[in-house]
Amino acid sequence: MHYKTLPQKKVIVVGAGWAGLGATYHLAKQGYDVTLLEAGPQPGGLVAGWKTPGGRSVEAGIHGFWYPYNNIFSLADELGIQPFTPYTRSSQYSPAGLEVESPLFQAMPYLPSPMGTFVYTQFKRLPLADRLSALPLLYAVVDFDNSDDAWKRYDGMTARELFKQYGVSERLYKESFEPMLLVGLFAPGEQCSAAAAIGMLYYFILAHQPDFDVRWCRGTVGEMIFRPWVKQIEALGGKVLANKRVSDVQVDDNRVTGIVCTGIGGDETFEADAVIFSVGITGMKKIVAGSEVLRNRSEFRDLQNLGGVDVLATRLWFDRKIEVPLPSNACFGFHETTGWTFFDLNALHDEYQDEPGSVIEVDYYHANQLLPLSDEQVVSLTQKDLAGCIPAFGEAQVVDQAVVRISQGVSHFAPGSYRYLLPGTTSLSNVFMSGDWIVTRHGSWSQEKAYVTGLEAANRVVDLLGTGTTAEIIPIVPDEPHIQTARTVNKTVRQLVNQVLPQLWSY
């Protein structure tokens, strides 16, 4: 008796960042005929690295790998790569000088959350009375449990309104919370959703004492992580195709049957049994705008209500070594509504350990007013800002440079945006979503969230098409017992109040 081999199910993944690569990798391991389409010249999206004409490595900003990134760290182990630095200490500067130094929190005696963060963070100027003004904010932290109801309660409020409502002093807000928002959510407090602010601050800083500890890639993420990852995908039979810009989808009976890419040579169609979109907000809006099928559906059309934040990334090579006390640094107060960070790449990247002069990466967030500047103006501004933190930078000469402008490059969690963020499933039965802006109950943020939602999308494909096993996703570490108890009590009280006075929570 002869058995006919069933053809492999075809899955198309759009976007080769953390989410798209994560989904593609798992599905390739499960035996699917999976094709990953990337609009850019190489996988990685905004974190893809490349070389300058002189052969020096550049990428679109530096990306940290925080202590709670358990899924990404597990992936690195599975790939057999060791791309990360040890955990590093960090500091914060203002035009007045050094403001904050953070220890390695995992090395300090453990204190119940959030006491470790409060006790061990070394503020140089911020008075204790201002720091204590944050205590009432703990109620909002307890009340926000990442549920759909919690997002709806807090998303309509700005982060600035939230901190003011809970009595945070103006100085603490200006010198601590808003700088965190500018480098965590990439926008000033009046432009950030209170829900996103609480969720981000809790995940990265407040949930567990070591969560603020961070390490870095020892080179560009594209070279050290994505390149070996793509090789593994291709070895499994997956296809990763660059320069494939999606322009439309083909639909039959509420199912997408093909993805259309438009190029110089005309249209090219990729057949699909399932589709995963893993692109950022800006890229997804462009796809929807060009697709009659997608823009006729309100969930996709409403994405026009979402936006991105501009980023300016500058890498400078100096003619001499300049002493930088700590390798990663955040800065505030230099530019209205713009935060920035700088990194000592001699300490972080293998390539620059023996460089004769300092190599410094400077990334500006919410940099819309800086993008029109010429490269020369950007370099001059960057050097001036660096000298405002470490005066020796003002005396050095820039011998090489790279300036990268990323318009609308990172997700903007604006007040009221939650209602327009897409869940992992869509009204099209075989189309799934992933990325750092997709609604998930996992609780993670940034790169870890993008990777996790990629795995979640792959699992939905497995459930739909019935081949293979689902990916194991490591949950975030549970809340500490006192936080769990406080949340249980708060939820019970809220439910009782809602039964008695439902109109209080009806808007």
Which properties best describe this structure?
alpha/beta; FAD/NAD(P)-binding domain; Polyamine Oxidase, Chain A, domain 2; 3 domains; eight-stranded mixed sheet; five-stranded parallel sheet; 23% strand; disordered N terminus; Zeta_carotene_desat/Oxidored; FAD/NAD-bd_sf
Tell me what the structure shows.
- The protein is an alpha/beta fold.
- It has 3 domains: 10-46 and 222-305 and 419-465, FAD/NAD(P)-binding domain, CATH 3.50.50.60; 90-213 and 477-505, no CATH class; 307-412, Polyamine Oxidase, Chain A, domain 2, CATH 3.90.660.10.
- 34% of the residues lie in helices and 23% in strands.
- Strands 8-7-6-16-17-18-15-19 form an 8-stranded mixed sheet, sandwiched between helices. Strands 10-2-1-14-20 form a 5-stranded parallel sheet, with helices on one face. A 3-stranded antiparallel sheet has the order 11-12-13.
- Strand 11 (246-252) and strand 12 (255-263) form a beta hairpin.
- The protein is globular.
